[in-house]
Amino acid sequence: MDMVMKLGAASPVVIFTKSSCCISHSITTLFCSFGINPTIYELDKLSNGKQIEKALIELGCQPSVPAIFIGNEFVGGANEIMSLNVRGQLKQLFKG
């Protein structure tokens, strides 16, 4: 789990994903529409991807991807991001 937290804190916005996950792609596209260029870790392309995925599940990510960190904080998955966006609160997180 320490590795996940370290990677999540390495950039202002981090998305853990899998290359085949269309929801992750949609979240990335949403962030880009705000002018945010997130750091993306595709778990199926990383040698330690299975370990990272296990740690994300331990963090409470169900499903494991997408998992989003903003400003060194774990925000959640697609449901949390879309909920924040619908309420107009997502953009504010990027300014923090």
Your description of this structure?
This protein has 96 residues and is an alpha+beta fold. The chain has one domain: Glutaredoxin, CATH 3.40.30.10. 48% of the residues lie in helices and 18% in strands. It has 5 helices and 4 strands, in the order αβαβαββαα. The chain has a 4-stranded mixed β-sheet, sandwiched between helices. A hairpin with a 2-residue loop joins strand 3 and strand 4 (73-76). The model has no long low-confidence stretch (mean pLDDT 92).
Q: Strand percentage, roughly?
A: 15-25%
CATH class category name = Alpha Beta
Largest sheet: 4 strands, mixed
SSE-based structural type: alpha+beta
- What CATH architecture do you see? 3-Layer(aba) Sandwich
| Main β-sheet, spatial strand arrangement | 2-1-3-4
Radius of gyration: 12 Å
Poorly predicted runs of 5 or more residues: none
Instruction: Provide the number of structural domains.
Output: 1
Let me know the average pLDDT. Answer: 92
User: What is the β-strand count?
Assistant: 4
Helical content (DSSP H or I, runs of 4+): 40-55%
Write the layout of secondary structure elements.
Blueprint: H1 2-9, E1 13-17, H2 22-33, E2 39-42, H3 49-59, E3 67-70, E4 73-76, H4 78-86, H5 90-95
In short:
By secondary structure, this protein is an alpha+beta fold. The protein has helices spanning 2-9, 22-33, 49-59, 78-86, 90-95; strands at residues 13-17, 39-42, 67-70, 73-76.
Spell out the key features of this protein:
96 residues; alpha+beta; Glutaredoxin; 4-stranded mixed β-sheet; 5 helices
